[in-house]
């Protein structure tokens, strides 16, 4: 019965997703900029994303966070447009716009009614080469970024744990630095640093335009040629390789911050697509992560959250698309009466079981079925579809992997899952961080005070 | 300047959108649940969202009861315990979600339209809504999870400030407590309380079923009947009391954080308030459109005080709050608070300029197609429209209503409804 369900799901996928995949068009402008268009004619809207191959993993020590700060400054005007003008123009066209920076990329996006696409492209092209890095604007914006860091990391226990965890897990890989940068580096960053960073990375031959929506590829091509075509290229010097030395023993760290609830984060160094001993390894790791955490029926929920009940929550996470090898992450929060150590042991037992025993065929089928169904569900979001293409292109892979990933997942065998567990999910490869709550005394020490009370009507 | 240059485009967009809304159909199930349906044939999937007037406003003396009940729905129903229920869905790629806020509780479903799969999805949803088991083990597990979530929220100065704001604004009103409950009540809630809550509020008369997907009207009719088949007809939840009048003032609470979080606000509007459009569009200028808003300009762009600064009206079943929010390093807290207050006072006195209002309207009207550009977004709109009794043509008429708002209406609505002295300021952070 299960088998027939799986087969019929695959049939559903072939109806929905495959024709959609056929509608992706790629071309390259003469100046080296890549343009990828995916048609989706369900609504008269479009998402446009410009992806740059630069992010925190490109940053040398001393200027960590510079890619993200530059992203902020990209909204502060160009030779042609004043600070904030970009946002105001897109807003008045009914659009949303923003940007995001990660380890391996910086991307700028606009979502808007399809008739305004050209205006968005014109503005993106303008700021690709003509941003104005004004010292006065920078002086304010760097403070905004520090506030962002306080919000996301300094005052957030889980954010703090994640940052400290990465800092000790990696000896050499630039993934040891936070995307937002260390506070010290933000404090000493200058507008000249930014200008140099901008000149070095912001050029058409280091960018990919992804457009998804109610468009015709030829029309997008014409617009892209009109606006991005005239831009000059830069010489993009390749980064030196950043190979992480082999880890030779478990690493542990305690993070002590004011908090009320302990927390555990563990990571095993793992390969990624394009950089693995065998090409199937990343897909086997994907299956493994779904066996552990692919929903409420997966092992962590079933055995640690229900079952033994030692964890209030437990999760596994693995990303196979990146520029540099990453980690297979496990996390958990103990229930009252159980310790972080017990949760750690519980997670280690789960990993050991995967090294010792083959996963069940039924589990494997569940993982494949979910992957197939979510392909259909993901097609409901323009933004997701564009992200998927942009990430693959920008980390140095090929968007055509989208077409083959279901096949690759379906080809994974229980033996391969056991093999990757044996190769990578081993103690020598492990980093463990625990959040040790310090008392939050101050809070209790000062009762709320009310001043200037006035009765409303 | 930008606004003026693009004025002609507004007209273009507006004309183009006059009939852009999806066709919404509505009817009642045999047992009296309201159904809202949009046919979306492009993807071979269907979204079903059942919303009930069963949020924390119905908690009574046990804060957290509504959310506790809702969380248990997927922890075992009918013949299936939590393991069996999850497996049934996940081995078919079906996604089931649930949640609960102050007004609304919901169960959502996403499934492929493949008949064998969809039948299992709908049958399971029916049991989840009508026959949750409330097994002792599941009750204790969810209790723990909610207690831990509560403690985790108290690690965050933002959620501490927000809790304090609601508690002050709503005093003894059911909106006062957080949907996640309180330490005391979470320890106290018994299986019987959960069953009773479920029996009273998870009934057809209290439910709206929103459906979007590749199914026709006839199939949607069957879907609505099937998912509500186990529910009693029941009665709609009673009206909520009007929120009390409370005094304005300032509350400071210390917290071991490097930033101070500022929540300034007062009572705002209910869903069908006649000032809704004027206040909504006005707020878009004031702080609704992030960086392109007056607050964004004053607090972030001009002074670099805060990363995230915004304001909003949260229109609810009865009067919901109006809030301005920012966070800044402790030593700048007073400065940020001052700027927020001054910005509001100036806005109340002067209202938006013609250009500002025009730009806000262009954003809201021109951006409307984005808000209904996926099945996932449409199903949430339908659920909301059904829940708050909006007319079926609401999606078709909203752009016209937005276009009709003028500067004088905004100024008038703000000056009548928002007054700085009535504001409550909650300031939570370190001492600098």
Main-sheet strand order of chain A equals: 1-2-6-3-5-4
Tally of individual helices of chain B:
18
CATH topology of the largest domain in chain B: Cytochrome Bc1 Complex, Chain A, domain 1
CATH fold-type name of the largest domain in chain A: Cytochrome Bc1 Complex, Chain A, domain 1
Radius of gyration of chain B: 23 Å
Tell me what the CATH architecture of the largest domain in chain A is: 2-Layer Sandwich
Mean pLDDT of chain B: 94
Proportion of residues in extended strands of chain B: 15-25%
Structural class of chain B: alpha+beta
Fraction of residues in helix of chain B: 40-55%
Cα-to-Cα separation, first versus last residue of chain A: 66 Å
Number of strands of chain A: 12
The CATH superfamily of the largest domain in chain A is known as: Metalloenzyme, LuxS/M16 peptidase-like
The biggest sheet of chain A, with number of strands, parallel, antiparallel or mixed sense and barrel status, is: 6 strands, mixed
Sequence-ordered SSE layout with sheet pairings:
The complex is a heterodimer of chains A (457) and B (432).
Chain A: H1 2-22, E1 24-28, E2 34-39, E3 45-52, H2 66-73, H3 85-92, E4 96-101, E5 106-113, H4 117-129, H5 135-154, H6 157-169, H7 183-187, H8 191-201, E6 207-213, H9 217-227, E7 251-258, E8 263-270, H10 281-293, H11 299-307, E9 311-317, E10 326-334, H12 340-356, H13 361-378, H14 382-394, H15 401-410, H16 414-424, E11 430-438, H17 442-445, E12 449-455
Helix pairs in contact in A: 1-13, 2-8, 4-9, 10-16, 12-16
Chain B: H1 2-5, H2 7-17, E1 25-28, E2 34-39, E3 45-52, H3 65-72, E4 76-77, E5 80-81, H4 82-90, E6 95-100, E7 105-112, H5 115-130, H6 136-153, H7 157-170, H8 183-188, H9 191-201, E8 207-213, H10 217-228, E9 247-254, E10 259-267, H11 276-288, H12 294-301, E11 310-313, E12 321-329, H13 333-350, H14 354-366, H15 368-371, H16 375-387, H17 394-404, H18 407-417, E13 424-429
Parallel strand pairs in B: 2-8, 9-13
Antiparallel strand pairs in B: 1-2, 3-7, 3-8, 4-5, 6-7, 10-12, 10-13, 11-12
Helix pairs in contact in B: 2-14, 3-9, 5-10, 11-14, 11-18, 12-13, 14-17
């Amino acid at each position: 019965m299960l088998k027939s369900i799986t087969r019929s799901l695959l049939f559903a996928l072939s109806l929905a997703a495959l024709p959609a995949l056929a509608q992706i068009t790629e071309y390259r402008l003469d100046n080296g900029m890549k343009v990828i268009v995916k048609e989706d004619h369900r609504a008269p809207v479009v998402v446009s994303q410009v992806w740059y191959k630069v992010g925190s993993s490109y940053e040398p020590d001393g200027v960590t966070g510079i890619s993200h700060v530059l992203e902020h400054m990209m909204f502060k005007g160009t030779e042609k447009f004043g600070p904030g003008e970009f946002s105001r123009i897109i807003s008045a066209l009914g659009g949303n716009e923003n940007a995001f920076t990660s380890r391996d990329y910086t991307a700028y996006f606009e979502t808007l009614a399809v008739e305004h696409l050209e205006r968005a492209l014109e503005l993106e092209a303008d700021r690709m080469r003509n941003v104005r890095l004004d010292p006065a604007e920078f002086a304010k914006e760097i403070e905004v970024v520090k506030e962002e860091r306080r919000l996301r990391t300094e005052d957030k226990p889980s954010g703090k744990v994640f940052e400290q965890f990465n800092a000790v897990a990696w000896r050499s890989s630039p993934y040891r630095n936070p995307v937002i940068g260390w506070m010290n580096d933000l404090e000493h960053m200058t507008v000249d640093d930014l200008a140099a960073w901008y000149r070095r990375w912001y050029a058409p031959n280091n960018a990919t335009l992804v457009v998804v929506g109610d468009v015709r590829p030829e029309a997008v091509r014409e617009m892209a040629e009109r606006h991005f075509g005239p831009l000059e290229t830069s010489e993009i010097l390749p980064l030196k390789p950043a190979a992480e030395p082999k880890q030779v023993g478990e690493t542990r760290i305690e993070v002590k911050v004011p908090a009320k609830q302990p927390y555990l984060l563990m990571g095993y160094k793992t390969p990624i697509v394009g950089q693995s001993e065998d090409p199937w390894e990343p897909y086997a790791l994907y299956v493994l992560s779904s066996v552990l955490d692919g929903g409420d029926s997966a092992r962590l929920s079933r055995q640690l959250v229900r079952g033994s009940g030692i964890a209030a929550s437990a999760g596994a996470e693995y990303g196979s698309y990146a520029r540099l090898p990453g980690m297979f992450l496990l996390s958990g929060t103990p229930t009252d009466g159980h310790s972080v150590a017990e949760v750690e042991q519980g997670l280690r037992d789960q990993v050991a079981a995967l090294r010792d025993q083959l996963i069940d065929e039924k589990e494997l089928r569940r993982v494949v079925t979910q992957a197939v169904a979510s392909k259909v569900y993901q097609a409901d979001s323009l933004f997701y579809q564009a992200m998927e293409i942009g990430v693959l292109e920008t980390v140095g892979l090929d968007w055509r992997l989208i077409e083959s990933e279901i096949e690759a997942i379906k080809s994974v065998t229980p033996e391969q899952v056991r093999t990757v567990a044996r190769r990578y999910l081993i103690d020598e490869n492990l980093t463990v961080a625990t959040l040790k709550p310090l008392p939050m005394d101050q809070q209790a020490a000062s009762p709320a005070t009310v001043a200037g009370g006035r009765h409303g009507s | 300047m930008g606004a003026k240059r693009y004025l002609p485009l507004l007209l273009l967009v507006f004309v183009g959108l006059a009939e852009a809304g999806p066709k919404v159909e509505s009817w009642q199930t045999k047992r009296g649940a309201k159904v809202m349906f949009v046919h979306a044939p492009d993807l071979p999937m269907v979204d079903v969202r059942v919303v009930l007037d069963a949020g924390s406003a119905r908690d009574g003396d046990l804060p957290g009861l509504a959310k506790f009940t809702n969380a248990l729905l997927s922890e075992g129903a009918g013949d299936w315990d939590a393991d069996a229920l999850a497996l049934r869905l996940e081995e078919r790629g079906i996604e089931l979600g649930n949640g609960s806020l102050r007004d609304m509780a919901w169960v959502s479903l996403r499934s492929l339209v493949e008949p064998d799969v969809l039948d299992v999805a709908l049958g399971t949803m029916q049991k989840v809504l009508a026959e949750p088991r409330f097994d002792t083990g599941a009750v204790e597990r969810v209790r723990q999870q909610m207690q831990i979530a509560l403690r985790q929220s108290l690690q965050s100065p933002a959620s501490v400030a927000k809790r304090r704001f609601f508690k002050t604004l709503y005093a003894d009103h059911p909106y006062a407590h957080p949907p996640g409950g309180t330490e005391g009540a979470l320890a106290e809630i018994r299986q019987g309380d959960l069953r009773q809550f479920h029996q009273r509020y998870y009934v057809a008369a209290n439910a709206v079923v929103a459906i979007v997907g590749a199914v026709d009207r006839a199939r949607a009719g069957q879907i609505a009947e099937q998912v509500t088949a186990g529910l009693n007809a029941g009665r709609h939840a009673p009206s909520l009391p009007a929120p009390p009048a409370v005094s304005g003032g300032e509350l400071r609470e210390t917290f071991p954080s490097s930033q101070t979080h500022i929540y300034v606000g007062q009572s705002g509007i209910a869903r069908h308030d006649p000032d809704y459009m004027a206040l909504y569009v006005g707020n878009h200028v004031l702080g609704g459109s992030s960086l392109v808003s007056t607050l964004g300009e004053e607090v972030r762009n001009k002074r670099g005080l805060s990363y995230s600064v915004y304001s909003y009206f949260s229109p609810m079943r009865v009067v919901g709050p109006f809030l301005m929010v920012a966070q800044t390093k402790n030593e700048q807290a007073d400065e940020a608070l001052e700027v927020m207050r001054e910005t509001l006072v100036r806005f109340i006195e002067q209202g938006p300029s013609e250009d500002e209002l025009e730009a806000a309207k262009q954003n809201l009207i021109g951006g409307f197609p984005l808000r209904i550009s996926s099945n996932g977004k449409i199903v949430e709109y339908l659920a909301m429209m059904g829940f708050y009794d909006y007319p079926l043509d609401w999606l078709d008429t909203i752009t016209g209503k937005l276009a009709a708002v003028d500067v004088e209406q905004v100024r008038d609505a703000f000056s009548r409804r928002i007054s700085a002295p009535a504001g409550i300021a909650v300031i939570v952070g370190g001492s600098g």
